[in-house]
Structures
1.
Amino acid sequence: MAQRVKLDEVRAAALARVDRSERNFKLAFLGAGFVEVLFILSFILLADLSNRTHLLLLISTVSCYSIVVLGLFALGAHVNRGVARVLKAVELLKE
């Protein structure tokens, strides 16, 4: 019985670490997104859009960021699905 109680404590501690890690990741991701939005807005405000070079830089920046952001969303969905499967396995171990 003592072994069972200890396993429950280990599971609870592991799930608490996962929750804390996820919260820290979300804060870091939102902070980085905010900084990037500031960079893009400052570029748009400072750029001379009649200059073809500035326009090309804006288009290339937006296209690169959109690819990276879509990749991050796909990666996040994949990780969430994997975490959900692991949590389901831990839940089934309790029974």
Note: The chain has a mean pLDDT of 86.
2.
Amino acid sequence: MFPERGCGSRYRRRVLPLADVSVCIPVHRGEDVLAETIGSVLDQTYRDFEIVVLDNASPDRSGMVARAAGDPRIRVERTATVLPEAECWNRAVQLSRAPLVKLLCADDLLHPRCLEFQVAAMDADPGLAVVASRRHLIDEESRVRVPRRGLSGLTGMRTGVEVARRVVRQGGNPIGEPADVLFRREDFFAAGGWRADRSHILDLDLWMRLLQYGEFLGLPEPLAAVRVIGRPASGDDAERRADQRAALMDELGDSTLFQVRGIDRTVGRLLSPVNRTRRRVLSAVSGAKRVPA
């Protein structure tokens, strides 16, 4: 089901073993949703994984919920104080032991075959840096509100150049959230991990830095579900998100590696109002206060 790799790929020195993936779940005040999230990992058809739950100094029973699952593949760690999101996510990956990593927010879910498909792709092609899939947007009751979101124009094998041009044209995050992405641990640390100064676009910022080290595969199947119910973003948050997104687009546009063209930047500027309207419409359809790009 996976495409043939293209020319010009960078092969790695070793072949990935047919096992070993870490699913890292940072959690703060997640006792109501964590059991379902962990259950979606334990239900995977691909069985050789570990789950690293990082209890971010939760005042609730999140840690107890994780331990209650009673599976030896689950390791629960706890921070002494509440860490900012980027620091917490970095710590979760630091605690991982496997060569492949997925970060799963404590209220998101995986399709039972998510790891099967994504690990197989990584194992088959050492030149891949990022494997992503489409995802459903779900509500607080885990009902699908918007199906099969993401990866517009990015399914199949893509170079980093193709992905960067698509991102700049769209001006948002066509790749998606951590739940629908699998990456290599070695690339994560080489790229510098999650950046605190990009706190509002943590995912997209990392995906583009990972693509310095290999290629991209977009799987058309919806293999994750992202919960979109949440508090409305404040005006300050919206402004910071816009500023950080604009800074990333400028970086991509100026990069000699990604070869973004002037036409891509022009299209991105022209479509910016349209894309903002599209996100507002999607928010209304999904019933969410705010939704992923």
Note: Residues 21-283 form a domain with the Spore Coat Polysaccharide Biosynthesis Protein SpsA; Chain A fold (CATH 3.90.550.10).
3.
Amino acid sequence: MTIHIHLDLVGGLSGDMFISAILDAFPELGGDLEKIIEQAGFPDLVALDSEPFNDGVLTGTRFSVSSKEREGHHHRHYSEIRETLTNSGLDATTKSGALAMFHEIAVVEAAIHGKEVDAVAFHEVGAWDSIADIVLASHLIAALNATWSISTIPAGSGFVETAHGRLPVPAPATARLLEGFALSDDGIEGERVTPTGALIIKYLKPAARRPDAVVLKGTGYGFGTKTFPGISNTVRVSVFEANEQDLPWQEDTIVRLSFELDDQTPEEIAEAVSRMRALDGVIDVTEQIVSGKKGRQPTSLTLLVTPECADTVTTQCFNLTTTLGVRREPVRRAILPREEVVVYVRERQYRVKVAKRPSGYTAKVEMDDLMAEQLSLKEQHEIRQEAEALAIKQVEQAG
């Protein structure tokens, strides 16, 4: 069975709130947390606490990590944290996730402050309690091995006091981490998503909506320490299950950009399409001739892009073409499991993409590999059949 988890950010999200909600939905995972902190190498620097909580409206769990380091000593370099985690006794998956999250925030901080990544020093996420939040979040994510989706994210408003002074909400690092995600304004002021909460969202890469044909198995509520007027400061975890045989594909959300051009030459459009295909985050670009106003036949362009690159690609659509408007739509995508394998036919190497369809495996040899040789059509056909059959057999045997 495949687990899918949907996050409803009612009050917002912090590291503590994420862990609280997971523990409320999966209380059996709480017993390992002290051990994870020991494996991370700083058991004497933090204290963990988890207890039932009722805010007068909802009941759930409130988890907290308190730091034992001296007050105000939160200045810690990325290189120091990376070395601590690299040399820790954490399992490979938890360690990899925690290192990936710290690298992500280091890249963001480096861009904001104009520094090299290894020279970045953390403040808010440099305290041991925040480091523990990230390590524990990585452990829980690895333990669940789930797919994820998320509601719209409350942007918050006003200002927050940081080590760099008074900054607007969302704080600069939080805003960078949340690029590509849908934010909403519910009129409630305050910091709704902390840098650690935004980092977890960025790492999860959740879809914008849960998949269809899944069964709700349970919920959990994780509470933060702040209070907001009229709402519970909680994040809700909804746990779904799907039978892989009933849902033989993976799902994610991409962004579809589309627009028409009726005042550029075919040569200019071809060059623009070529350059757009090369942009980071672009999955595909298609073009077709359509009927337009005044009897014109404009070219319609459609780009499929990853959410985090949608703004950058949109900017380039305006830079590379004469369009004055770009339609932007989030699109759910079903993706068949597939992998590329290498096989040898007649002492030559061929790459083959093998897809697992509901009806069985299909394969397609890489055409560049076939066309690289001076082969007749008959030879190409024979090699294609043999290579694809070998690739399917190889994948089936691997399980």
Note: The chain has a mean pLDDT of 89.
